[in-house]
Amino acid sequence: MVKHIVLFKFKDENKEENIQTVKEMLEALLDSVPTLKEMEVGVNFSKKERAMDLSLISSFDDISGLEEYATHPEHIKVLEFIKKVTIETKVSDYYI
C-alpha cells in the first residue's frame, strides 16, 4: 500500500471558506477516482507558527494507483483551485 500525505498553507484571503471548499473537493474525489482507496482530510486547530492549515492522508494499492490519481481529470480540477488559494504545500509519499 502507498500513502500520500499533503499539507497545505492557505492565503489569508477567504482563508476559512477556502479551507472548507478544498476539504469538500478533496473528499469528493473518493467517488470519482477509482484508484483512491481511502482518504482523510483534516483542518488544523494548532495556532503554532509552523502549523499548516489542512492535511490530506490518502491511500492507494500501489504507485501506479497514485500516478493515476495524480493525472485524473477530477483531481486536476481540484489542484487548479488549490493552486489559487494556497501559498505552500508539502508532500510525503511512502509504502506501508
Secondary structure layout plus pairing:
Layout (H helix, E strand, L loop, with lengths): L1 E9 L4 H14 L9 E6 L10 E7 L2 H9 L1 H13 E10 L1
Antiparallel strand pairs: 1-3, 1-4, 2-3
Helix pairs in contact: 1-3
Provide structural commentary.
It is a single chain. The protein has 96 residues and is α+β, with helices and mostly antiparallel strands. It has one domain (2-95): Alpha-Beta Plaits. It has helices spanning 15-28, 63-71, 73-85; strands at 2-10, 38-43, 54-60, 86-95. α1 runs antiparallel to α3. The longest helix has 14 residues, at 15-28. It is globular, with a radius of gyration of 13 Å.
TL;DR?
By secondary structure, the chain is an alpha+beta fold. It has helices at 15-28, 63-71, 73-85, and strands at residues 2-10, 38-43, 54-60, 86-95. It has one domain: Alpha-Beta Plaits.
Name some characteristics of this structure.
single chain; 96 residues; alpha+beta; Alpha-Beta Plaits; 4-stranded antiparallel beta sheet; 3 helices; globular
Largest sheet: 4 strands, antiparallel
Number of helices: 3
CATH class: Alpha Beta
CATH topology: Alpha-Beta Plaits
- Count of distinct structural domains: 1
Helix content: 25-40%
Give the overall shape: globular
